[in-house]
Amino acid sequence: MNIVTIVGARPQFIKAAAVSRAVQRARLQGCDISEQLLHTGQHYDYNMSGLFFSQLGIPAPAWNLGCRNNDTQMTQKIASVLQEVRPDLVIVYGDTFSTLAGARAAVGLDIPVAHVEAGLRSFNDAMPEEYNRIQTDRISRYLFCPTHTAVENLRNEGREEGVYLTGDVMYDATLMFTPDVERQQQILHELGICSGHFALATIHRADTAEDPEKLHGIFMALSQLGREVILPLHPHTARTVSSHAELTGLLADSGNIRVIEPVGYQEMLVLEKHAFLILTDSGGVQKEAYFQRTPCITLREETEWTETVTAGWNRLAGTDTQRILAATAAPFHTKDISDYGTGSAADIIIQHLISA
Ligand code: UDP
Fold first, then answer.
1. Residue 71 pLDDT greater than 80, yes or no
2. Helix or strand holding residue 198 (H, E)
3. Options 43, 204, 234, 274, the catalytic residue
4. pLDDT per residue over 12-37, tens digit each?
5. Is 86 exposed, middle or buried (0-12, 13-18, 19+ CB in 10 A)?
6. How sure is the predictor about 89, in pLDDT bands with cuts at 50, 70 and 90?
7. Hey, whose CA ends up nearest to atom 3 of ligand 1?
8. How many angstroms does the Cα of residue 277 sit away from the middle of ligand 1?
């Protein structure tokens, strides 16, 4: 089986790293399976892309199409590659423009698509991610779901065929790439922070990152946390900040918010593990907060990862300063979540594909 895996954005490199290793394991066991990576170019800064390939040992992409965000030609360019290669299967991940463009290009050429992280829903139709994931699910042959809720969402939409509950490949990745204790201490030392004495914040969703008012609400809350806040700033958000003097000023004058460049995955896992609190609008970071057993405040009105909220690890607080501060104040009563599997979601996915 020849697979072309389509990636383009940071979280996809991480998910693909886990699945690529499962492909290599299957090959070593004698399976006739191979994989080539196609990078759409959606994320292109070194610390949003190249760093992940080197740090996670992901095979270099066979193609890099150089398409930027939502390039209208992305589907066409992917199709040209697929037409030449004619793989047996295309794998896409998550909910970005690259996900949907990859799925559409493959389906247009009658190449079956496997969607990893299928069935997630925010039920917020204003989010481009919601559109991308729904459309991708509709046209994919194999829907690999990370949680029971995702399976349930698909069932409610009338889809049962080709749906598999696999666990979460991001949990696989977390187990695979969390550095040992010595390296954790080294990373904390390099960043000049002490375990348990800082909060970690990330903001990148278009809905927030492009809205100075929402960013203002969040930054005000961060500045009133009374503890150091590490903020690895996504380039998308950085663009809005640098074009709004009051936001630049708020961050500079806060005295407790430390803005840093986006960090590598291993550094991020260490920050998540040692923070006393995480505040984020990222889907991946919400889950990783749980994987590292750090309480999380989600800076949105809804989440696709509802089990994190039900289990008490995650609170939805939106972008209003007082709501965020109130959410941080109450103690977290938590319980374990069984949904995400045991760290072998990628192997389960590859076994399903081999035996399909
Ligand atoms: N991440 C990272 N460095 C950073 C910020 C995030 O490695 O500076 C990782 C994070 O650990 C998670 C993934 O990027 O695995 C989440 O990506 P993102 O927040 O961009 O997207 P989402 O998960 O919301 O789709």
1. no
2. strand 198-202
3. 204
4. 999 999 999 999 999 999 999 999 99
5. exposed
6. very high
7. 263
8. 16
Span 39-67, mean pLDDT? 92
Report whether 24 contacts 113 (CB < 8 A): no
Residue to probe by mutation, ligand 1, list 52, 127, 268, 302, most atoms within 8 Å of CB = 268
- 96, 132 Cβ separation under 8 angstroms: yes
Note the pLDDT of residue 46. Answer: 86
Which atom, in ligand 1's list, is nearest to the CA of 282?
24
Q: Is 204 a catalytic residue?
A: yes
pLDDT tens per residue across span 226-262: 999 999 999 999 999 999 999 999 999 999 999 999 9
Instruction: Go through the chain and tell me how many residues it has.
Output: 356
Yes or no: say if 256 and 193 are a contact pair by the CB < 8 Å rule. Answer: no
Tokens representing 43? 């994320």
- C-alpha torsion angle, residues 40, 49, 290, 211 (rounded to 10): -80
- Sequence-distant (6+) residues with CB within 8 A of 335 are 311, 312
